[in-house]
Design a protein that fits this description.
25% strand; single chain; alpha+beta; endopeptidase fold (from Nostoc punctiforme)
Length: 219
């Protein structure tokens, strides 16, 4: 049975010991997943691993991708491990370290080679330590600060460029719609407030004209 557990792995980085604090997810050998290569813990090649959110979205994404959309989970693989970001309560880090190309809740789809990072394993480890402090679990936002945003940010820091547009496409479209709805609502609110001013002016003008017409000057 697959379960999340807190991992405490001792690792020597730059001649000092640091206790790694990740949410480590064990690989379930009985899980039905595609056969994937063994991770290379010495390779500086960076991979973007793409997952469908579930078996239903796997079918939907197959169609959606043809028109430049989809709903995906993504993790960044480097030096044999995969890193992703998700929601966690109580101010803990949202950065998760897993076995490469496996996730207990999502369906593995494909791996995209992103290129080789110039960073050493030790430098990547230190970079992840910094990101663990920056990417806290309760700052997760489904539209603007999620696993895709993290993967894009991480890949750029690894100097391999941002993640493909089609991976981010649905999020960007949904974010655009949400943003424009908010802007439109704000504009309508402003117009409603502004509309109140001429209404008052017209009312007073009408009252003034009515008053004058009922009290005509007779010479």
């Amino acid at each position: 049975m697959t379960k999340n557990k807190k991992g405490k792995n001792k690792e020597v980085i730059n001649n000092y010991e640091e206790e790694e604090d990740y949410n480590i997810i064990d690989h379930d050998e009985n899980a039905e997943v595609d056969v994937i290569p063994e991770p290379d813990f010495n390779s500086n090649m960076v991979y973007l691993n793409i997952y469908d959110l579930d078996s239903v979205s796997k079918v939907v994404n197959t169609v959606a991708r043809s028109v430049g959309a989809g709903a995906f989970h993504a993790g960044v693989e480097v030096y044999g491990y995969e890193y992703s970001f998700g929601y966690i309560m109580d101010g803990e880090t949202g950065v998760t370290k897993t076995n490469a190309r496996y996730h207990p809740y999502h369906v593995y789809r494909e791996t995209i080679p992103m290129g080789k990072t110039p960073l050493t394993k030790e430098e990547v480890d230190l970079l992840v330590e910094v990101m663990k402090l920056q990417w806290i679990g309760d700052t997760y936002d489904i539209l603007s600060r999620n696993c895709l945003n993290y993967a894009d940010y991480f890949c750029n820091l690894l100097d391999v460029g941002g993640i493909p547009e089609w991976v981010m496409s649905l999020q960007k479209k949904v974010t655009w719609v949400k943003s424009n709805i908010n802007i439109a609502a704000s504009k309508l609110k402003e117009l409603n407030k502004a509309a109140g001013i001429p209404n008052v002016i017209n009312y007073l003008k009408k009252k003034y004209e009515d008053s004058n017409s009922s009290d005509d000057y007779k010479g």
